[in-house]
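Comment thread on ticket #2218

A.B. wrote:
> Attaching the input chain for the structure job we discussed in standup.
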Amino acid sequence: MPIPNLRNPYDHMEEDDDKDDEDTPEVTINAATQIRGHGNIVSIAQMDSMRVANLISTILTGDPNKAPSDGTGRP
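C.D. wrote:
> Ran it. Output below, let me know if you need it in another format.
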């Protein structure tokens, strides 16, 4: 007697035909996205070290204006 909750993998189901259309991923590429080389490697534009430091500071403090000053006039 078959188990009612399990599907037989050998039975063809019409739903599987529609699934093939959904397997193709969509990729949106804007001006900041570059595709280099091979192996599906996608990179974004490089950031300089000051912008990276400000980004990390913003993430840690929540607001770039509230970041502690180090005396150089920069947040």
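A.B. wrote:
> Thanks. Noting for the ticket: Residues 16-66 form one domain.
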